[in-house]
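User: Predict the structure for this protein chain, please.
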Amino acid sequence: MKRRLAPLVLVLALVGGGLLWLRDSSLVEVRQVTITGAEGRTGPLIASALRGAARGMTTLHVREDDLLAAVRSYPAVREVRVRRRPLHGLHLTVVRRQTVAAVRLDGQAVPVAADGTLLRGEPIPGDLPTLDGGASAGQRRLTDRTALDSAALMGAAPSVLRSSVQDVQRDGSGLHVQLRAGPRLDFGRASALRAKWTAAARVLADPRAAGAEYVDLRVPARPSAGPFPAEAIAPAALAAPAAQPSSVTGD
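Assistant: Here is the predicted structure, written as structure tokens:
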């Protein structure tokens, strides 16, 4: 039995050794690197760092950890996706973190992503609010819980509503968003944020909610709005059918 297995083991060893040799051989070395998603102010630097790292690899042995390490100094990069193109090509897609708000740190406004990553060096869109910060100069991420929850809240917002946010505050009842030209949105705890934003969009689009001072989203399946100016209250606004997903009440 052992004599029969010996040739098979030898063949497997030779094949395995050949594959290991081929994996790092110049026959499959990376020669062409195309990059998408490296945009913005730091885009050219990110692309250059990735090309430099990729050219030391082969298409059969792409070290993705090394690619991420090459762009670690650029916090806007969240992920690098790899697609191989035989025999010598790599296509790298840079997935960037989006700026959802700004925080004031050491007297300066710093862009921040939804996960609390500080995007130093990136531009800050003028229509985004500035949150209360919570990090020191050398840190890459927010540390204050309120600041982290506020960033997550802004990250969950639909873009059309995110640009309408004037301020985010927290008190004993939870998180609150003040719209520039609209009511206060009461989110409560920092949970089910996308569902709460969806409920907010639904209520804000309902003409019966016009003039409300607040929208209570703590239970996203049953949002409510109020109080209304006396002249805006009409019986129809108080008689939401039971099948309606949102309710509008006047105090």
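Residues 107-238 form one domain.
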